[in-house]
Amino acid sequence: MSDIFSKLHQAFQLPVVRYALIVGLLIALCSSLLGVTLVMKRFSFIGDGLSHVAFGAMAVATAAGITNNMLIIMPVTIISAVLLLRTGSNTKIKGDAAVAMISVGALAIGYMLMNIAARSGSGRTSGNVTADVCSTLFGSTAILTLKPADVWICIAMSVVVVAVFLIFYNKIFAVTFDESFAKATGIRSDMYNLLIAVVIAVIIVIAMNFVGSLLISALIIFPALSAMRVFKSFRSVIICSVVISLLCAFFGIMISILAETPVGSTIVSADIIVFFAFCIVSAALKRGK
Questions:
Q1: Containing H/E element for 170?
Q2: Which among 68, 34, 20, 29 has a CA at the least distance from the CA of 201?
Q3: Are 240 and 257 in contact (CB under 8 A)?
Q4: C-alpha–C-alpha distance, residues 172 and 168, integer Å
Q5: Residue 226's pLDDT band (boundaries 50, 70, 90)?
Q6: 229: enclosing H helix or E strand
Q7: For residues 167 and 194, which has the higher predicted lDDT (pLDDT)?
Q8: Exposed, middle or buried: residue 120 (CB in 10 Å: 0-12, 13-18, 19+)?
């Protein structure tokens, strides 16, 4: 036990480890806040589709040799969020089909561009394309990858996400539970649905380098599903979801330091364990009644 604490103490002497903890907790906080709304509105597919789009945009930026890839990833992901939200029942291509087309297309084009850039020696892609792709899709295998600029960008975006959620909490609550009633009371539900989609796009972009583009949707959905197994009110589900997400992120990072496992995969694994634990608690509570 003393060896474990000694290793953790030594790790936290390094600024990059503290950066990873700060970013991980902020991402967990933001993703859990909007995760409940996505699950209840059956918008979970948007998070998965946008994570694939972010990968494709990142591949384009890398192949083009753009130093600040956020200039491409952020607007492309936000525009895709708007387009996915607009694919309703009145379009020829339904929402689930549109997500499949966009997500698979983004993955294919992104991987192809990274291969082309690696063979031609252009862009910033290294010769080991498989390692680059795995790192982007599943998160970096090394925790010591974050820079101070990454931390400040994450802090600024997280403040915006939390502020938006708190300011429009009542509107988001109304749109989440009964969109028809919200429209009848004068709430512009389309605008708030668009706001939710844009905020999710921002969360996915800031989380991609840390967790990996394929694992972000799990980070958004699992805490919400776990909380909904036990709690019923909107506020209690959100609070529980936030607590679960923060704890899983914290212990996931700790375990990844000790076991030298990928950060994103370790955090998601912790979320899965907690989900099954809450399923057991839910079953026990139902038997008790």
A1: helix 169-177
A2: 34
A3: no
A4: 6
A5: very high
A6: helix 216-230
A7: 167
A8: exposed
Quickly tell me which residue has 């480890």 as its tokens.
17
Of residues 111, 70, 80, the one with CA closest to residue 205: 70
> How far, CA to CA in Å, does 84 sit from each of 48, 77, 243, 283?
11, 10, 30, 36
* Structural contact between residues 36 and 237, judged by C-beta atoms closer than 8 angstroms: yes
Q: How far apart are CA 261 and CA 96, in angstroms?
A: 33
Q: In whole angstroms, how far apart are CA 137 and each of 32, 110, 274?
A: 20, 11, 23
CA distances from 59 to 93, 115, 154, 200, 208 (A): 26, 10, 21, 20, 12
**Contact between residue 26 and residue 156 where contact means Cβ atoms under 8 Å apart:** no
Rounded to two decimals, the pTM is 0.80
The pLDDT-based confidence of 89 (bands split at 50, 70, 90) is very low
**Which of 4-13, 29-38, 83-92 has the largest mean confidence?**
29-38
- Among 145, 66, 156, smallest CA distance to 58 is for 66
CB burial readout 165-198, b (16+ within 10 A) else e = beebeebbebbbeebeebeeeebebeebbebbbb
Q: List the structure tokens of 76.
A: 């492309």
